[in-house]
């Protein structure tokens, strides 16, 4: 026996020596494990016999089922043949019924067509007669509405003329009332100018614009537009400001309801005097003041008097 020193040498020796391999296997493997191949072969043989018996039983079942299915197929074929014959007979009967029904329906349709054709002719005659009658009624209605329109137009024209006459009369009355209210209010402020503005000015007296014309012309000639503006100022008043004693001219625009335009006119007319070095104070006087007018007065530095009460007085204090 050769000397074996490594595992590789042992493996090579056992590979070439069958007897040693069996002895070593008998020593290393337990008896139960050694018998396992033989027992597995016996088990495999037993399983093979059981499978062969199952196959034989399945073959017998399959043959029995084939015979039963063949018998069922023959019975179904007989039923199908009987059904085909029954359906063929029913089809022939239905065909006969369809043909008879078709002839009857065709006769009914023909009768309906003739009846509807007769009804159409009668309806056409009625439509034509009705159309002629409606046309006559429409013509009569058009003529009637045209006559009514002419009458209404005459009434509307008369009403418009009456309304215009009434509006002109109301406007004249309104203008007259506004003029009277303005004259009355202007007269009241003229009469109260000394006591009303004496709070801020001494020796207040109402003047006419010609009283300052020479003074203004001496400084700078007045244009035609400036003369026209100063000639229509509602109230001009002269006085000396209490705060510094300077002579001032009050440019007062009077309006029952003070609007932004009244504020702007007072400021523009006072500016004619201011451009010539004259101390001029713009004032708007009235009974009512709109929010827009109040804002305009604050922005353009214009005093505002309402029924003797100063609403905006800052320009009077300067």
What does this protein structure show overall?
- This protein is of the alpha/beta class and 318 residues long.
- 74% of the residues lie in helices and 14% in strands.
- It has 8 helices and 6 strands.
- A 6-stranded mixed β-sheet has the order 1-2-3-4-5-6, with helices on both faces.
- The radius of gyration is 66 Å and the shape is elongated.
- 15% of the residues are buried.
- Mean pLDDT is 81; it is low at 170-180.
Rg on CA atoms, Å: 66 Å
Number of strands: 6
Determine the N-to-C terminus distance.
144 Å
Write out the strand line-up for the largest beta sheet, numbering strands in chain order. 1-2-3-4-5-6
What series of H and E elements makes up the topology? HHHEHHEEHEHEEH
Largest sheet: 6 strands, mixed
Number of helices: 8
Structural class: alpha/beta
Helix content: over 70%
Shape summary: elongated
Measured by DSSP, the beta-strand proportion falls in: 5-15%
* Average pLDDT rating: 81
Low-confidence segments: 170-180
């Amino acid at each position: 026996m050769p000397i074996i020193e490594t595992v590789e040498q042992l493996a090579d020796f056992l590979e070439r020596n069958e007897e040693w391999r069996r002895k070593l296997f008998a020593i290393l493997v337990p008896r139960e494990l050694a018998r396992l191949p033989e027992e597995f072969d016996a088990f495999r043989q037993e399983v093979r016999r059981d499978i062969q018996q199952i196959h034989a039983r399945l073959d017998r079942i399959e043959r029995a089922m084939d015979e039963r299915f063949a018998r069922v197929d023959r019975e179904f074929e007989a039923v199908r043949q009987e059904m085909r014959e029954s359906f063929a007979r029913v089809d022939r009967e239905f065909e006969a019924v369809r043909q008879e029904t078709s002839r009857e329906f065709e006769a009914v349709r023909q009768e309906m067509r003739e009846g509807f054709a007769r009804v159409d002719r009668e309806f056409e005659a009625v439509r034509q007669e009705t159309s002629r009658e409606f046309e006559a009624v429409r013509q009569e209605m058009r003529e009637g509405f045209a006559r009514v329109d002419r009458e209404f137009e005459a009434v509307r024209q008369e009403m418009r003329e009456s309304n215009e006459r009434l509006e002109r009369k109301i406007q004249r009355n309104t203008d007259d009332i506004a003029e009277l209210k303005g004259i009355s209010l202007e007269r009241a402020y003229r009469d109260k100018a000394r006591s009303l503005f004496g709070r801020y000015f001494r020796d207040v007296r109402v003047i006419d614009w010609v009283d300052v014309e020479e003074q203004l012309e001496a400084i700078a000639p007045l244009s035609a537009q400036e003369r026209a503006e100063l000639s229509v100022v509602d109230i001009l008043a002269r006085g000396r400001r209490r705060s510094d004693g300077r002579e001032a001219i009050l440019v007062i625009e009077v309006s029952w309801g003070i609007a932004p335009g009244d504020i702007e006119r007072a400021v523009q007319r006072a500016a004619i005097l201011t451009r010539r070095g004259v101390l001029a104070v713009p004032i708007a006087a009235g009974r009512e003041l709109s929010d827009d007018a109040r804002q305009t007065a604050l922005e353009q530095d214009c005093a505002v008097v309402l029924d003797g009460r100063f609403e905006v007085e800052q320009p009077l204090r300067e």
